[in-house]
Every structure is written in structure tokens, then in C-alpha cells.
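Lecture 7, part 2: worked example. A protein chain together with NAP.
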Amino acid sequence: MAKVESVHDFLKGKTILVTGATGFVGKVFVEKILRVQPDIKKLYLLLRASNPYLATHRLQNEVIGKDIFRVLRDKWGADFGSFISKKVVAVAGDVSLNNLGIKDENMRSQMFEELNVIVHTAATTNFNERYDIAIGTNTMGAFHVVNFAKSCHKLEIVLHVSTAYVCGEAEGLIVEEPLHVNGMQKGSTKLDIELEKQLIEEKLKEFKAHNTDKEVITSVMKSFGLARANLHGWPNTYVFTKAMGEILLMKMKDTLPLFVIRPTTVVSTHSEPFPGWIEGVRTIDFVVVNYGQGILTSFVGNSETILDLIPVDMVVNFMIVALMALSKGLSKNFVYHIGSSLRNPIKLTDVVDAMYYYFKKNPCVDKYGKLMAVTKKLTITGANEFNQNKGSKLVKKTEDLYKTYSLFKGIFDVKNAESLRIVTKGLLMWMVNLTLIQRTLIGKTT
Ligand SMILES: NC(=O)c1ccc[n+]([C@@H]2O[C@H](COP(=O)([O-])OP(=O)(O)OC[C@H]3O[C@@H](n4cnc5c(N)ncnc54)[C@H](OP(=O)(O)O)[C@@H]3O)[C@@H](O)[C@H]2O)c1
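Predicted complex, written out as C-alpha cells:
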């Protein structure tokens, strides 16, 4: 078996392509690499832009200009700008296009020559995205990354970031197994990705022929995505198109050194580069913030549902250690869940308690500086009760967005992730006991 080397040594002199660096997970990944190994050779960041000038502008404003980089900025002081310009290259592109949308042929050849590692995090994470956009980004994006990777001469490893919820309507213990198109059959309906693409093409042609209004196209394509997802057994367009992305990867990977991580629900940083950093109001934060402001008083779910939450810095730490381990052949598994529901389960009711005690102690403040005290815990109602009571628009919106998770009946197995932790023991110091975090969350400090 190959020797376990330190992550530090592994990263030294490497050239890495990262997609999705303006996003939540991508940004934390880029920051950590630059912080722990300044001797990285180069980071190419593929940013959605039509030209290099705009890509560089996005790099400055939407990546390194963000607060998550403040520790690194402080570390380098006046030299921060020159450090970044030596190490980071903004590449204009788009993962939904061939060659990742990189128009500059010289840039492409240089990347094919230099890249050692590819980390693909780019995705549209909108649950209710237009079907054509979601399939272009999440499904064909994965396809284009694999094609690009196959042209690289010195490639050691490719990481595709998926989501644990590609499992669709599964229940019970959900194992870390690859998705194969052959297994994708709901009743008599068999998934055929080519057919899905063809159906989209036909719809778009029809819109063109009828000069259809853009708003109508958006609305029809959103409903179409949801209908196709439901038909094939997925709750929304996002996870359906991510699942199809994984299926294509499986089909195409051939001998490419490639693996997939499937994080569960990614939440703010636990400790690095500092605790509590998050980008905007996302995933479960929508519920937390609206409750803290007194806007949301009830929520559709089951108190006993186990929520699977994982801090973003833990996801990134796993990504980095796994890149090293898989490139050295220390694990042969293809899929890794990154979550907490098996080893450190936390129930919806515990999160509700934590929210109540937190906001009682730290109330939100309105725009006039007045405290917005919470007086009651968030009420959890069953979906049927909600339908009878015809709840508020906000409750309906949260139900639509979150019921897949707040009524979820699965637990994510982490056998593969755990065995990787064992072979790289010592490197995974970051895998702190999540119970500690949960206890802090619910105010139990013992
Ligand atoms: N956040 C979670 O809770 C969670 C949980 C499980 C798995 N994941 C997975 O983790 C990955 C990262 O998620 P995230 O939360 O960081 O998402 P995010 O914040 O929504 O960021 C998505 C990133 O993808 C980029 N992107 C979208 N379409 C693109 C295109 N056509 N070409 C190039 N780049 C494109 C976005 O760029 P723009 O700035 O141009 O839009 C952005 O940088 C995704 O693959 C997601 O499925 C996330």
C-alpha cells in the first residue's frame, strides 16, 4: 500500500483546477488550500464569465474579496495581492459548454499540460431551476469535466462534488454506492438521459417557433423539470439533475482517477478559518432567520426526523485529505457520504430547541434597533395538518423547499468515509466529535 504522506507535502507544487469558486463550498476550499500550502504551484479557478477581464473582476470581488479570506489577508498583509496574483489564475468559462467554455486555446493547452488535480463543485443549487439550465449545469457539467480531464497529461485525481440527496426517495440506511442508469427504474418508467435531453430540445424549439415570452419559458421549464424529477423518483430538479450527472460520470470515467463525495446539508464553518462563516441565507438558515425575526412560527416536518447537517470546513477538510488518499491509492471506493446522521444524529426537535434558546439569549434587531424577542418555540406540524389549516404563504414556501429534508426517513451510511478516516488517521484531526457541536447548539455544555 502507498505511504500516507502529509496533506502539506501532497499539495506542494500541485496545479489544481477548481470549478464553482464563487460558490459557498468552492470558496472555503480555495481559501484553505492557499492558507495551508502557500507552495501550491497554481490554482486555476473556472469562473462563469464571457471574457478573462470579467473573470478576473469576479475573482477579486466574489472570491478573494470576501470575508472568508480575512485570515489569509491578515497573514500576508501588504503582500496578499502579489501572493494571489502569483498563485491564482481566473479562467473565463462555463461548465455547461464543451471544453468547459474556455475559448482561449492557449489557456486550454496550458491547463492540459499542467493540471494535476481537478475539483468540480460548480452546480446550480436552486431546487426549482429551469430544467434546461439544471441539466446543462449539473448533468452535462459533469460530462464536460470528465471530457476535459481526459485531455490532461499529468492528472492524478478528479473530485466530483455531488449531494447525498441523489438518493431520491430512499429510506433507511442509505449506502455509499454509485448510481447506475440500469438501477434507475421507477415502476415501468426507466430513466434515459438522452431522452431527457431530447425532450428539452423539443420544448425549446417549440418556444422558438412560437416566439414565447421569456417569463413563460422559465415557468414552463421549471414545472417541466419538477414533473420529470417526480416521474423518475426524485423530489426536485436539483437532485434529479445531480443524480444524472453522477450516472454519466460512472458511464464515462473509464480509467480516469475519479471519485465522488456526497455531502448532506452543508452549514456554516465550525472553526476554520473562523467559526460561523456562511454565504448569505442558505439551506436551514432560511428557517432559522425567519424564526428569529418572528416571521415563521410553524414548520412542516416530523419532530423525530434526523437532520443531517455538516459544517462546510469539515466537508473541505475531507475533500483535501481524500484527494491525497485517493491519488495515492489508499482507498478504492468511488463514493463517500459526508454527513452526521449515522454517527451523531440530531433530531429536528433538538434544532427547534436550540433555535429557541439561542434567540431568547440573542434576539434579532429590526431596522429601527428594536429587539425582536421570540416567545414560543417553532411549532412542527405534519403535512396533512398543514393542508387542513391552509397555513401562511411563508409556511407553504418552507414546506415546498424543505419537506424532503424535514420529513426524510433516511440515515446516510459513512462506511467508506470512515474507512478513509482510518487509513489516513492523524490527518483527519478536523473530524471533531460532532456531538460536541450539537451539545453546544442545544445549550448542553457538559
Ligand atoms: N450547500 C449545500 O448544502 C450542499 C449540500 C450537498 C452538496 N452540495 C454540492 O456542493 C457543490 C457546491 O455547492 P455550493 O453550496 O457551494 O453551491 P453555490 O454556492 O450555489 O455555488 C455554485 C457555484 O457553481 C457555479 N456555477 C453554476 N453554474 C455554472 C456554470 N454553468 N459554469 C460554471 N460555474 C457555474 C456558481 O457560479 P456563479 O457565481 O457564476 O453562479 C457558483 O460558483 C455543488 O455541487 C452542490 O451540489 C452542496
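Confidence is low (pLDDT under 50) at residues 430-446. Residues 19-20, 22-26, 48, 94-96, 121-125, 137, 161, 163, 242, 263, 265-266, 283 surround NAP (CB under 6 Å). Keep this in mind for problem set question 3.
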